[in-house]
From TrEMBL:
SUPFAM superfamilies: UBC-like. This is Ubiquitin-conjugating enzyme E2 H. It holds the Pfam family UQ_con. CDD domains: UBCc_UBE2H. The lineage of its organism: Eukaryota, Metazoa, Ecdysozoa, Nematoda, Chromadorea.
Amino acid sequence: MGAVSNLTRRVALESISETEAPRHISLLNYNCDNPMMATSRNPNRRASSDVMRLMRSKHEAKVSRDMKRLVVKFYGPKDTAYEGGVWLIRVCVTDIYPFKAPLVGFMNRIFHPNVDESTGVICLDVTGHAWSPLYELTNIFDFFLPQFLADPNPGDPMNPDAASLYVNEREQFQKKCKEHMEKFATEEAVRKTYGRFLSNEKQLSVPSDDSESSLSDFSEDDD
């Protein structure tokens, strides 16, 4: 699938705290370093270059000071069950990038067979195209995510209920997607949940220390 244009717009997210924006914010504080695998404490030049390329692209994003954490605004592709939805995508770039895919997840809820509904975590490889060092961050938003939403893989589900509806009751699946979008993935819903952190700044104000947080902590109490 080729690049899908006009999918994202630049979003500013400031001074995030888990108590005020409960879903998935812990990933922004997640330890992106892997001391067991990193070969150097020097900055990852490839990662920095790819982050800057993403910031200069049409995709609208904010980046942390250490250039390891990003938040990108992403719009659902046309002619899919997700058309009209808007999501904040969190990205965490590890020290061994690009040899390992970045951690990617949805901050606001989405009903999708391959998205863990409680954490928003996804696996890029589920698209059928294994991550390669030849890929860069812009490919996630030009290629991986558009295909991910357009063509779910019910054979490898992270949300069994969504996978079952997708296979057996497609109309009900689309209805459920729309219900989720109306509640969690509209511009108004994003502003309501994250609005106090929106600004015109490109800097994402999050800690850059080595404090770790578990992916299992990315939960939201709202129904």
